Amino acid sequence: MVKSPTKPLTLEDFLNLPETKPSSEYINCQIIQKPMPQGKHSILQGELVSNINSVVKPQRIALAFPELRCTFGGRSIVPDVAVFAWERIPTDERGDVANVFKTHPDWTIEILSPEQSQTKVTGNILHCLKNGSRLGWLIDPGDRSVLVYPPKQQPELLQEEQEILPVPDLVRGFQLYLFTSNFGNTKVSNLLKLEPDNGFRCQGRPNLFLRLPEPDPRYRQTTLRMHICSDKDLTTFSKIINYL
Description:
The chain is built from 4 helices and 16 strands. It is globular and about 50 Å long. The termini are far apart. The protein has helices at 11-15, 39-56, 118-130, 231-243, and strands at 2-3, 24-27, 30-33, 62-66, 70-72, 75-77, 81-85, 107-111, 135-140, 145-149, 156-158, 164-165, 174-180, 187-194, 208-212, 222-226.
């Protein structure tokens, strides 16, 4: 929904307005309210944030934020998922994560809602890339596709199951796959794994991943993921294997 005030609203004026639910964005002197997230959108957003952070947060490589306001380059936008390199996360005087982010994300991810303008969403991704973002994704749950926007390159359309999705260089060495989850027929990106011998270790041990066959034919696969960071973790993992 677009709200056009009688006189042009400045970015500073917009930022002084109360926050709305769902969030509103400031784009080209207009206030555009995002649509209320629906089921598929919420599943994808939750899976992406959880899985990205499960891999990059322990090593302090990056951090993924859902619905984080980012104000830069004359716009104030709220990507569905904004990933920041660890060293670029704004902090306050106590060293905690700041409330206000006046900079671009390193990786911006948008999930298209049925009533949302793809042009507007694409414009936000391009705005991020123009101002320094390393990668943009536009996920369309309707046709089960991901449009990948590398900086200064042609976008790439990915639709096939098991395709490896490009990730920005700050998380190079990780792989993210598309496959059909157990939430109906919604394709959910919910497998992150380390490539072999990429140098990332936790107390000398790699992260271990176990993909198990699922007896229920409705489900393609189930993934059990554990970060093996201690002898206790390794013992727990062994007990799971023995139980299976």
